[in-house]
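Narrative of activities, Objective 1.

The group set out to show that a structural description can be obtained from nothing but a protein's sequence at a throughput compatible with the screening campaign. Below is one input-output pair from the validation batch, recorded exactly as produced.
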Amino acid sequence: MFWRPKSISQLVLLGLLTVIAPLCIAIFFTVQTLDELAIRNSRVSQTAVSLTRISQVFQSDMLNLERRARQYLTLQDASLLEMFKREREQSQGQLTEIRRILTETGTPDIALHQVRDGLADIMSALPVDAAELSTQLGLFAELGVSSQQFQRLSQAYVDSQLAQHRAHTDELKDSLLVMVSLLAALTAGFSLALIYWVNKPIKQIESEIHHLGAGELGHAIRISGPLEMQTLGLELEWLRNRLSELEQEKQQFMRHMSHELKTPLASLREGADLMAEGVVGDLELKQQEIVDIIQQNSRELQRLIENLLDYNQVLASQELRAEVVDLDGLWQELLHNYQLRIRKKRLDVRISGSVEEWCVDPAKMRTVLDNLLSNAVNHSPEQGIIDINWQIATGVLMVDVANSGQPIPHADQRKIFRPFYQGSAKRSGPIKGSGIGLSVARECAYAQGGTLDLVVNPDFPVCFRLQCPDLNQVAA
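Output recorded for this entry:
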């Protein structure tokens, strides 16, 4: 099985070795190659210098030898003959040295060997007797020609050796470049593998943290990778379990509080309704206004309590009940519930629509529109304007609810749909909002396959747009 580092320290050590090892290999091969190149360069240079020097000396000695022989034949001086003999022996020694150089270097030039052997034969044929010397002067001409030929061949051999050395140097340079490129690619491959090995658990942790932040607590957290990352995964799993326990405790608390809050509120609404119906006697105009205030605010309080207590139930309810709804009638019914607040703030409500009916989930659509209308009424100033318009756009019902209230700050625009978030805009009325109305409205819109967003309206500072498809067509 492929070994994997179990800790961050092992991973760092492996990464360091991965980077250093190819570098060390490259340095080792480079030093070895340079050493071989230096030895070869030294051998070639030594051969070239030795062969060139001795060839030049031999050529000069051949001229001196011929001149010495002619001087003797002219002057008949015995000392000149002795000098001729010594120079002849010296030249033969030089030919022996040339043979040694050619043999040690393994020179494959056959012509060069043949010319050298020819020089040796002519040198051996030169007589040392005075009588024969005068008849063999023609050998010096052959010796000169062979000597010049040997010098040319020697120079050509030296040039070829230098050219081969340059070509070998270029080959070594190319091989080093290829080796370095392969090592660099290998290092990059190992580095990418290590980066993936380190980044994978980090991405897993990042994903799990996003899941926790989004409230997705249903799956167990498993983090692979080094030991430290696995330990962190265990801590996140403990946190997930703890959050799940807290969520269950919250739901249990809300279920218990539902009865505690709804029961006295129901009694309050029932008493106000009995008073409004005249069960306790006819009410004067001012008394009727007070009862209307009690009824209106009790309904508002009930709506806020239901939003607060039934928030999780609204999110969990994914079943849709598709019915054709009279949009104008639904809006008129919702506006009737807010008439007291509208008259008190002297709001100008403008309502218009080009669609009479639409197939939606009645409960969810009512929740969406009720929250949008409540938001518009509560945030509109005295004598403000609320504009409600619905129409068909690209086969989708589009409902715009705009008001002339304060513009929503840019910092709040991305947060207003979060549960329990309350922006900096002032809300009018004696009852403070719960901060989940818009969140519930958006979730109800999503449940029907629609959207709810804050959009730009050139005529109003604040405008919410609901887009909802026809559920009959969605089901089909």
